[in-house]
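Course exercise 7: structure representation. Students receive a sequence record and must write out the corresponding structure in C-alpha cell form. The form below is the worked example handed out in class, using Multicopper oxidase CueO (485 residues). Read each field label carefully; the graders check that inputs and outputs are placed in the correct fields and that the protein name is recorded exactly as given.

STUDENT ID: A-19
EXERCISE PROTEIN: Multicopper oxidase CueO
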Amino acid sequence: MITRRSVLGGALAAAGLPLLAPGAFAGGEAHAARGGPRPASASTPPAFTTAMPVPPVLRPLSSTGDVDCYELTIRKSTAEILPGVASDVLTYDGHFPGPVIHARSGRRVLVRHHNGLHMPVTVHLHGGSVPPSSDGNPMDVFAPGTARTYVYTNRQPHASLWFHDHAHHMEAEHVYRGLSGGYLLTDDLEQSLPLPKGRYDVPVTIRDARFDERGQLAYTMSDRNRTTILANGKPTPYFQVAARKYRFRLLNGSNLRLFSLSLSDGTPLIQIGSDGGLLERPVAVPVLTLSPGERADVVVDFSRHPVGTRLVLANTGPGRPEQVGRVLRFDVVRTADDPSRVPAVLRTLPPAAALPRAAVTRHIELSMDEDGRPDPRGFVNGRLFDPDRVDTTVAFGSSEIWNVTNTNKRAPHNFHVHLVQFRVLERGGRPAGPTEAGLKDTVRVMPGETVKLHMTFDGFRGDYVYHCHMLDHSAMGMMATFRVR
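STUDENT ANSWER:
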C-alpha cells in the first residue's frame, strides 16, 4: 500500500537522501548553527504596529528577443516576522515574503532554480499552462546541489499566478515556511484598461502561522492553532495609502485556512479579477471568501475617506474573532491624483451556453479520515495518491465536465487542477455566482457540496495532477494524476 512515508522515501532515495519526517526542518540543524534556542519572550506584537512590506519585483538576469531569463537559489534564510526575532524560513533568493516575477503573454520566461537545501524540491507555476517538464509535478523533484530550468511559454491571457514548491509530502511544510512567490502575467488587453497601476497595484499574500516560544514557525500537519495572521509576511500589519484607488492582488497563501474578507466600514470590495484574470464586469462584494490557493483582484477607493482614516480589512472566516478577525489596516496618510478608473466591462468571456460541448462527464470525490486518528489520510475517489498510477485520461483538445464533491461531513476542501483554467458552472446545483464567473484554477468545496466545472484540455499533452489545495490534505494523499494524450 502506498503510504505517506513510502512515497516520500522513494523520492528522497532517488535523490540519494535520508528520509525526513514532516516537521524535520524545525529540528536542530538550523537552530544549532546559531547557538541554540532563543529567549522565550518572543511574542506576536499588538495589531497594526508593523508596516506591511511590498514584495520585491525580480529583474531578469537577461532579456533577449522574446525571452526573459531569471536565476534563483532556493535556500534557508531568516526573516524578522516577529519584532526583534530572526525566524528560520525557506526562501527564493532570501526573500520573505517571496518575490514577484512580471511576465507578458507571448513572451517566454526561463527560470533556473538552484537547490541550496538539503531536501529535494520542485517548482509549480500555479495556474500556468505549461509543458509537463516545467509543471513542477510532485514527483519530478531535483536534488540538493543541482539546478533545474523551468520554461514558461506564457501562451495564456493575463492572470495573477503564483509559484511554490510541490515536492510531495513536503509541499505543505515547504510552502508554510516560505517557498512561494508571485507571477503576474499581463497582456495588451489588461494594459489597455485604466486600472490602478505601478505603486498602486499591490500584491498581498494573506496566511496564518503559529510560532513556538523561540519565535520560530511551528509546523504540525493539520494544525488548527495557526492563529497569527500574516499579510506579506508581517503579523496583522498596517499599510499606508493615498486617498485614491488601489488594486490589491489578494492571494490566500494558507495551508488550510479559509478567509472571509470585508472592510470595517461596510464598503464593498470591488472585485475585478479571480484566479485566471479579469472578470467580465466588476462586482461589489460585501464579503470575499478565499480558500487556500485562490486569488482575487480587488479595487479599493480610498478617496471617499479623509486623510487620517484607518480602515481595517477584517476576517469573519473560521476561528475566534479575537485571534483571526483582523488581517490588515489601511491608513490614509496623503492625497494623490488619480487618473485610474474601473470600467463597466473588463473583458469578454463566452457564456456558459456557448462553451465547447463536453465530450465526457466525470465525478470526482474528495475525502479524508475524520475519525481522529493521529495520521489521517486523504483520498480522491477513495484512493490515496499513487505516483505510478494514471487515474484519468483525457483527449487533447477535448472539453469535459467535472463534478467535484466533498464527501466529508466536517472538513472543507478545495480543488485545484494543473494545466487548465476552468469555468465554474454550478455550486450546489445552482448557477455560480458572479465572483466565480471568470476563469478559475482553484475552487472551494464545502462539506457535502458539489461544484460543476467545465474545462478544455488544449494546452499540452502529458501527465499532470489534480488535488485538494489545502496543502496538508494533498500531502496526506488527496491527489490524483491525469494524462492528456
